[in-house]
């Protein structure tokens, strides 16, 4: 089965549609959404409704910190810029959309796979997997061989051997990577809606559970249109600019 892994959609309709179209063309049979459907972008309602449709058809979905901020309480650590967008987003959503965000679990375990937004060791505290130390801590917190998480907006792959040897690398798009369950793996697909690795193309990944391979993908989209929508909504100009810069 080909499982598409999509995270940090951030209300970016153009990027999300491009990713979903690309994944379908690659033969994706199921989808896992790893949180942060809202925040930063100008199309939160459309993104939520789209994810709801996929969930109704068997997709996995977990909640992120921006989703929690909109549906419940804004984190004290959230930057003023993000806080402004959260408050604007609340005004754009109806009760059903807010309800969907409220009901999202922090994590989902299915077989040998763990799906979570931030990390496995403290999902509700939203700590980032910034490097190997945090990745190993997350892998030690689960017995699953495959952990999929978002939050970090840059694609990364970490692994931990049975003897405790850890490694990581930055993947090349479109190149299948063998990830057999002889090790534990932590996969960060990168952000679909707001990439931050200097490349504006949307990120996602496909896990082929039969072949036990992982392929990171990059998908160009019309980020200028997305930026224009952000400006038209009266959201911070910087949010439009960073889409074009990939930062």
Overview of this structure, please?
With 247 residues, the protein is of the alpha/beta class. It has a single domain (2-245), classed as Metallo-dependent phosphatases (Purple Acid Phosphatase, chain A, domain 2), CATH 3.60.21.10. It is 34% helix and 21% strand. It is built from eight helices and twelve strands. The strands form two sheets. A six-stranded mixed sheet has the order 3-2-1-11-12-9. It has a six-stranded mixed sheet with strand order 4-5-6-10-7-8, covered by helices on one side. Helix 3 (65-71) crosses helix 5 (95-103) and helix 7 runs antiparallel to helix 8 (237-245). The longest helix has 13 residues, at 13-25. The protein starts with a strand and ends with a helix.
Relative helix content? 25-40%
Stretches where pLDDT is under 50 for at least 5 consecutive residues are none
* Series of H and E elements: EHEHEHHHEEHEEEEEEEHH
Biggest sheet strand line-up: 3-2-1-11-12-9
| Major β-sheet profile | 6 strands, mixed
Secondary-structure-based class equals alpha/beta
Write the layout of secondary structure elements.
Blueprint lengths: L1 E5 L6 H13 L4 E4 L10 H13 L3 E2 L3 H7 L8 H13 L2 H9 L3 E4 L2 E4 L15 H9 L5 E4 L6 E5 L5 E4 L7 E2 L5 E5 L13 E7 L4 E7 L3 H10 L4 H9 L2
Parallel strand pairs: 1-2, 2-3, 5-6, 6-10
Antiparallel strand pairs: 1-11, 4-5, 7-8, 7-10, 9-12, 11-12
Helix pairs in contact: 3-4, 3-5, 7-8
